[in-house]
Amino acid sequence: MLLGLSWMVMACLIMSGIVLDCLFGEVRRWHPLSGFGNLAGCAEKRLNRNHVGRVRGIAAWLLVVLPIVAVSWLVTAWLAQLHILLALMTHVILLYFCVGLRSLRDHLLPIAQALQEGDLPLARHLTGRIVSRDTTSLSEMEIAKAGVESLLENGNDAVFGTLFWFLVAGGPGAVLFRLANTLDAMWGYRNQRFLHFGWAAARIDDGLNLIPARLTAFSYAVLGNTRLAGRCWHQQARHWSSPNAGPVMAAGAGALNISLGGDAIYDGEIEHRPALGSGPLAVGTDIARAWKLVSRTTALWMLVIALIGMTHA
Predict the structure, then answer these.
(1) Residue 270: helix, strand or coil by DSSP?
(2) Phi/psi at 260 (5° precision)
(3) Which family does the record claim for this protein (predicted)?
(4) What does the DSSP assignment read for 124-161?
C-alpha cells in the first residue's frame, strides 16, 4: 500500500466508505462522476475531429484525468500535514464518491421486480438506462440476461476494482480507476467514431483492471459453484472481446450455474457474442441471485482485508 497505513486502518477506511455508500447511495445532484462525464464529453467533441488519430485520444485522456487525480492527491497530502484525521476522512469521502454498490442494487433490483410483476415495458425501460444494447424488443429472458451481465461486470468496475485501487493508493487511486473506467465506457467503442480516439481509454482501463478483474472472478468462483465457475473461466473467458469482462462474467455465470452471453443488438446491428456460463438461461429471479453474489463478495473482501489487518497489527 502506497499510503503507508496499516491494513487495519485501510480496512476501517474501506468499511466506512462502503457504509456511507449503503446509507446514502449516489448523490442525486452534482455527482462528481456525472460532472466528469460532461467534461469528457466536451473534450471529445473538441478533440475527436474526423474520428482519426490515437494521439488526440491519448491527449484527451491525459487532459481530463490527470488534473483531477493530481488535485485529489495534493489535497489529501496537504491535509495529512495538517492532521491525519482530516486526510483519512477525505480518503473515505473520495471512496464514497467512487464506489457504486448501492447504485447497482438500486438500478438492477427494480428490473427484477418489474419482471416479477409481468411489467415488460417497464423492465425494458429500466434496462435501457443501464446497458448500451437495444432494449425495445427484449424478451423477459433477454432482459434478465442483460441485468445479470451488468451486475457481474459492474460489480468489478464499480466496487471491487475501486476497492483494489483504494488499497493501492487510497482515495486518489480510487479516483484514477473510476475516471479511467468512465472514459472506457464513453470512448472505448470499436466503431468509426471511437476506434482510434478511444484506443487509449480502452487500453488504460484494461491495464488498470487486469488484477482486480481476476480477483473478482476468483471471488465469484469461491462463493458460488466453484468447479463450474473455474471451468467456464478457463474455457470461455478468452473468447470474450474484453480481456477483463470475460473472466468476470464467465466465472460469475458459472458460479450462478446459468447461461449468459449470446447475440445482442447494438446500434441496430446484431453482435454475435460468445456463450458464457453453463446451465439454464437466466430468468428474472437470477438478477437478485447475482446481486447477492456481488454483495457477498463485498463482504468477503472486507473480511479478508480485516483479517489481514488483524494479523499485521
Answers:
(1) strand
(2) -125, -170
(3) Belongs to the CobD/CbiB family.
(4) HHHHHTT-SS--TT--HHHHHHHHHHHHHHHIIIIIIH
For the record, the C-alpha cell of 86 comes out as 482530516
CA dist 109 and 119 (Å) reads 14
pLDDT in tens, 17-42: 999 999 998 877 777 888 898 999 99
Beta bridge partners of 260: 276
How far, in Å, CA of 194 to CA of 85, rounded?
Answer: 43
C-alpha cell recorded at residue 107 = 438500478
Q: What is the pLDDT of residue 173?
A: 97
Closest to 136 in 3D by CA, of 50, 264, 10: 264
**Residues 144-189: pLDDT tens digits?**
999 999 999 999 999 999 999 999 999 999 999 999 999 999 999 8
Q: Hey, is 212 helix, strand or coil?
A: helix
